Amino acid sequence: MGTATHCPYCALQCAMTVTAIADGVPEIAGRGFPTNRGGLCRKGWTSAALLGHPERLTTPLLRADDGVLRPASWDVALGRVAAQLLATRGTHGADAVGVFGGGGLTNEKAYLLGKFARLALGTSRIDYNGRFCMASAAAAGNRAFGLDRGLPFPVADLDAAHTILLLGSNVAETMPPFVQHLQGARTAGGLIVVDPRRTATADFTADGAGLHLQPVPATDLALLLGLCHIVIHDGLADKAYIADRTTGYAALARSVAPWWPERTSRVTGVPVELLRETTRLLAAGARNGGGYILTGRGVEQHVDGTDTATAAINLALLLGLPGSAHSGFGTLTGQGNGQGGREHGQKADQLPGYRKITDPVARAHVARVWGVGEASIPGPGLPAVELLASLGKPGGVRTFLVHGANPAVSAPDSTEVLAGLASLDCLVVCDFFLSETAALAHVVLPVLQWAEEDGTITNLEGRVLRRRAAVPPPPGARSELWIMAELARRLGAPSTFSDDPETVFTELRAASAGGLADYSGIDYPLLDTGAAAYWPYPTGGTGTPRLFLNRFAHDDGRARLVPVSAAAGSGSAGSVGAGTSGPGGVGRNGAGNRDTLFGGSTLALATGRLLEHYQSGAQTRRVPALAAARPDARLLIHPAAAAARGISDGGPVTLANARGAVWCTAEFSTAMRLDTVFLPFHYPGRQSANLLTSSATDPVSGMPEFKTSSVTVAPGWLPGQPVHAGGGDALAGSGSFSTSITGTGTP
Ligand SMILES: Nc1nc2c(c(=O)[nH]1)N[C@H]1C(S)=C(S)[C@@H](COP(=O)(O)OP(=O)(O)OC[C@H]3O[C@@H](n4cnc5c(=O)[nH]c(N)nc54)[C@H](O)[C@@H]3O)O[C@H]1N2
Ligand SMILES: Nc1nc2c(c(=O)[nH]1)N[C@H]1C(S)=C(S)[C@@H](COP(=O)(O)OP(=O)(O)OC[C@H]3O[C@@H](n4cnc5c(=O)[nH]c(N)nc54)[C@H](O)[C@@H]3O)O[C@H]1N2
Ligand code: SF4
Ligand SMILES: [Mo]
């Protein structure tokens, strides 16, 4: 008899059954569920290889004086951490302790981590890797609708749509079972994909199934302003809807007036006819079976990501899509619990229930649930990029706890991040593998995996799901809830810290009650019946599969049309962005500055994902079938761009800019624009894409500019600058810390 649970990876949270096998790898089977309908992708099918993996951490590790990580007992390891936390706090103040969470943590862990940081550590310095993921879309959704739930409708609603506009999302690789929900739009000829690459997803638009717009990277904002312009000027806007359900139309219309089609085309490189055909299809879809606009990281992970997502919402509002029964706007949440993980308090500015930490009413409510005085809840902290930039700096974080993230690989401008991690007084990492971040730690605490513990996850449609323990954990690993509870006890923290997931969920319900993301009516027995529990789900209520049908979440019930403008640099293709760092345009930027693209011989570097690997690769690079399929980083480059540089297909290639250099292998692809190359970010060391990305951030969301950097590309593996401030080329394995572990037995 197998156990019904959900996949460890992405936010589609495909349903699966895990069956324990005596002395063998558990069996995985797809399970019927509206999002995946029994389907799984290759990562899901092979996910059992993570359980019982030979590299699984099963004992705490402590860095000894000789720099080597050695096994230690839980009592010694936790004692060391507690002593360090007290020492840092005593000497440098509570904000010298920092916490970094993850969008893969269950709701219970994410909630308890936020509480642990505020009450047990007394620090404001907590943020998480979802800042790199959903922050721009969330900020835009909050601004326009007064609420951020990635998809305000069930995924299956898409099946009947006539038109779907997918902006910067490659679902064919990032959520393969999701692709079935695009079939209706493909049959109707209405799938429109916007991506500078002709991706597997863009290929679905072939043969009359729709359109592929292949813009200059980082020009989506201009593109969307241009589409709004056409909708208004060609009389395609839904005037009744705009009058009934929105505010701000006049200012919006003025703001898009300068974006006439020819200008938009000049900036984005998208032909005028394609722009017009896009708006025609969208308007027809809205009138007929239904139209949807969906965004992914391709448009959001930019310094203007919030404004770009806002422009996409404006386009949807002009067409009357959001909050209609058969149409809508949404963003595709990424990490397994990327939705729930952004609701319950691991964000710098947030308390549970999607409450603002600066709101006195919210603070009073949560303080009451926690049984503490309101004053003992610190104020807002720093968003992820700033938090990481503060590591080891005067006035910054000196002891850092990482739960469910691998920033050594996935944070932007990783040379700086690695230097920051290496300069800490103490780095404590909870993980089940020795990730690249864990390899730098002073203390590594081995935790349980997805199929070894109970909890809840909120999927990309805002539906709360049960994860269930299906196999016994290895002796030696402990639950993260237990670790927090145990540390809280050693620190003499106020309130209560339970290590029982259901008890923690019950507390989360109370803390979320009355908030935007209200879970108070949901409990484990309800979820165990298979009930479709979409939040908000207040006590005595029924849940909300479709939001906004009657009103948006702002006080007046109306959505906001928010005028946004493309930065000065979007004035012409060839000089995108507002880089201020001179010729070549690459440096360590301040907030808001973006690399100037295509100056001289440089190319635009786009980064993103492959089907076989997940994120930093800490998990999937350890799954034999996936590692064999994609063993190393390949740079996708157009054959003509390669030929101009003397680069051969399958040959070694160096990408470089002022921030760093990457060595990998070239792979020719006519799916690339001539001015753009693509590198996945799943690999560490010399292949790490984030050696090249900029830590410039969106001023509203704090999202870094992951998606476009300026690089030179040359044949061969050329010496780059040393990568690690501390000790030569740490990425090549010779850092100031040894990453080897000695001893394997439990102490
Ligand atoms: N296989 C796999 N699946 C995953 C993940 C994974 O790591 N691996 N991660 C999960 C997570 S956390 C997330 S956030 C999602 C992400 O899912 P997606 O958003 O689909 O993934 P990405 O590959 O990051 O980016 C999507 C596309 O953006 C394009 N792009 C780059 N620059 C631009 C631009 O300037 N404009 C436009 N319009 N497009 C651009 C890229 O070419 C890429 O094809 O995937 C989830 N699913
Ligand atoms: N260049 C570039 N960089 C990017 C992106 C991009 O498109 N381009 N995308 C960004 C995006 S969208 C995201 S979401 C981030 C993701 O960035 P990361 O934070 O690197 O994500 P993961 O690789 O999933 O790291 C999760 C780590 O936590 C561990 N883990 C998993 N579950 C648990 C748990 O329950 N508890 C604990 N303690 N550990 C756990 C895993 O083993 C792994 O080591 O990367 C961002 N970085
Ligand atoms: S699409 Fe996402 S949730 Fe589904 S099997 Fe693949 S990784 Fe897992
Ligand atoms: Mo993500």
From TrEMBL:
Keyword Iron-sulfur tagged: yes
Domain named 4Fe-4S Mo/W bis-MGD-type: residues: 1-53
Gene Ontology molecular function, alphabetical: 4 iron, 4 sulfur cluster binding; metal ion binding; molybdopterin cofactor binding; NADH dehydrogenase activity
Keywords, ordered alphabetically: 4Fe-4S, Iron, Iron-sulfur, Metal-binding
Listed Low complexity bias regions: 731-747
Keyword hit for Metal-binding: yes
Short name of one Pfam family: Molybdopterin
Sequence segments annotated as region (Disordered): 722-747
Biological process per Gene Ontology, one example term: respiratory electron transport chain
Tree of life domain: Bacteria
InterPro entries: Asp_de-COase-like_dom_sf, MoPterin_dinucl-bd_dom, Mopterin_OxRdtase, Mopterin_OxRdtase_4Fe-4S_dom, Prok_molybdopt-oxidoreductase
GO CC terms: membrane
Name under which the protein is recorded: Nitrite reductase
